[in-house]
Design goal:
Blueprint (H helix, E strand, L loop, with lengths): L1 H22 L7 E2 L2 E2 H4 L3 H4 L8 H9 L2 H5 L12 H10 L13
Antiparallel strand pairs: 1-2
């Protein structure tokens, strides 16, 4: 039951993230893994094909993000139009150490 509840909560959270970040371009006031959705939107060009280099603003956001939290969403990235390989490479491109629980990719 607890696992089902956790999965359900993740799905609800992902729906909110999808609507806010992708659907309306990132409205202020919604926190996602330690970032405001408008801040997270700064990184979209870097994680969507063809994958632009991350901007200083994006890297600044990533330095304050909860990477452990972001890691929990890596399986749903393709459904959000995000290339998982580009997303997993983003912390390294911003000079951030990768948390090991994300398969070593973060």
């Amino acid at each position: 039951m607890a696992k089902y509840t956790s999965v359900s909560m993740n799905l609800v959270f992902l729906m909110v993230m999808l609507v806010v970040v992708v659907g309306i371009g990132g409205a202020n006031g919604v926190a996602i893994c330690g970032m405001e959705s408008s801040e997270l939107a700064q990184c979209l060009p870097a994680v969507r094909p063809p994958g632009a280099p991350p901007t200083p603003g994006c890297c600044g956001v990533m330095h304050h993000a909860d990477l452990h939290c972001l890691c929990t969403f890596k399986a749903v990235l393709p459904g959000l139009g995000i290339d998982p390989a580009l997303a997993m490479a983003l912390p390294k491109k911003c000079g951030i150490a990768a948390p090991p629980e994300c398969g070593g990719a973060w």
